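This section describes the prediction task in plain terms. A model, or a person checking by hand, is given the sequence of a single protein chain and must write out its three-dimensional structure as a string of tokens. No templates, partner chains or ligands are provided. The sample shown here is typical of the held-out split.
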Amino acid sequence: MATKLATEDIDVLVFWKKHQDKMPLLTRLFRRIGSSQASSGQSERTYSDCGLTVSERRANLDPGTVENIELINMAFKAGLY
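The expected answer:
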């Protein structure tokens, strides 16, 4: 089952819609993988929060302590604490 591809830019959503009957398993796999968010927004927010926690006055905090503080902050923001 060879599918010839042009060398020009391809819209992957259109490609998989067009070929979903020929490649149903790969299409399902693409839908799972292709729908994942490429942004690392949550990790960036966590990094920013850590920057607020570890200030100049708290520069000597143990990494485990910083982790515990951030876990408590995340639980508080999620309404779990």
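For orientation: The chain has a mean pLDDT of 82.
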